[in-house]
Amino acid sequence: MNTFIEACQEAIGTEHVLTSAEDLAPYLRDQRGRYIGVACAVARPGTTEEVAQLVKLCQQYRVPIVPQGGNTGLVLGSVPDQSGTALVLSLRRLNRIRHIDPLNQTMTVEAGCILQNVQQAAHDAKRLFPLSLGAEGSCTIGGNLSSNAGGTAVLRYGNSRELCLGLEVVTPQGDIWDGLRGLRKDNTGYDLRDLYIGAEGTLGIITAAVLKLFPQPVAIRTAFIALESVDHALQFLTLTQQRCSAALTGFELMSSFCLELVRRHFPETPPLFAQTYPQYVLLELSDHESESHANTLLETVIAHALQEGIVADAVVASSLSQSSALWQWRERIPLAQAIEGKNIKHDISLPISRIADFVCDTDAQLKQRYPGVRLVTFGHLGDGNLHYNVAGPTDIPDHRFLENQQAINRLVHDNVHAYDGSISAEHGLGALKREEILRYKSPVEMQLMGQIKQALDPHNLMNPGKVL
């Protein structure tokens, strides 16, 4: 192993190959602090060519590779196992924006670019890069693409896969595939780009990408909507899509208990309604015509929904600061959960038409089996993605309640499967769900995935123990 580490140091510089326990620590702990892996070293290459050199060395010495971006994932996909044999390959130094083409509406960036910096660079070029996540100040584009991240604007713009036109990838053999083509149409064989996006670093290492840009909206309008049920929220979604079409860019569902947690742990958050309602929606419109047109769209759809009894009440932001204050309610839910204590998280997706029935059915089963359980349900209703999280009763210590995690996961995931959904909507499978997925994917599907992995990475060196 010492010979391998020395070879890595020679390839990219001794200062960029970390081996001390203190230097390794930030790269080995998962984002939620539940798990700490072990690695032989952390390498921090600064170019695609250096990545390729390191991968060739890993092939030569048969050293497993764990690619890592911002290490903000939630399924143990970017941390090594306990064997201590893997090299963590951090891409944070690959952080250059290579080219912006305003006319083609594209931006070429390296994998280690922080998402927020990419958003700002697009803004400076008078364009919009619409991917928006809670971790956007620390997550990287490579990680976003490797997990096919979604976020709050999927309803209008799609997942990371839809926002990417081309990739640069280092293969498991250390070859560099230059697929950085800013083309919307290219029917010249298999779509290798889509193969690597969402593969969580198990098939190759994404080192750069061509991203889609969009015109900046002229006006953004935000409203917080109170509703009596998830079914009413779905009715309101249908109405808003009919009336606002592509202007609808955000539609976030939150249960009453979500807001209760935010009020409890962030009492400075500006109040919304005089009374409590079972469900809430944070609605955002992005208009490319005019501010008056955006105002008319929003006012008309809310007025109609109130008249039809679909919506119980509404708060409309009249300024950017008020809009930001409304978004704080949504953005602070995960933070409030963490302060409240441990909970059992589920990142799921469902056909939009079946969400209300799933929530009603699963809530009832959990409450019957675990009296006093508290359900933290929120997510991107417009694309069917829910964060369906289960907190224990207030009179039971967290560690005691977490003893039920496997049984609760089984109940929730079995219901997701029964309602034709997926047990991973945004965060991927990583190591956390790779065994769980065997219950829900067919043998044929798993076999096809395994054959792809074997063909591209026959020595199983690329992020082993993840996904498959």
UniProtKB/TrEMBL annotation:
SUPFAM superfamilies for this protein: FAD-binding/transporter-associated domain-like, FAD-linked oxidases, C-terminal domain
Cofactors demanded by this protein: FAD
Transmembrane feature ranges: none
UniProt keyword annotation of Glycoprotein present: no
GO molecular function: catalytic activity; FAD binding
Entry keywords, A to Z: FAD, Flavoprotein
Pfam families assigned: FAD-oxidase_C (PF02913), FAD_binding_4 (PF01565)
Presence of the UniProt keyword Flavoprotein in the record: yes
GO BP of this protein: respiratory electron transport chain
Domain of life of the organism encoding this protein: Bacteria
Domain FAD-binding PCMH-type: 35-216
UniProt family annotation: Belongs to the FAD-binding oxidoreductase/transferase type 4 family.
Protein name: D-2-hydroxyacid dehydrogenase
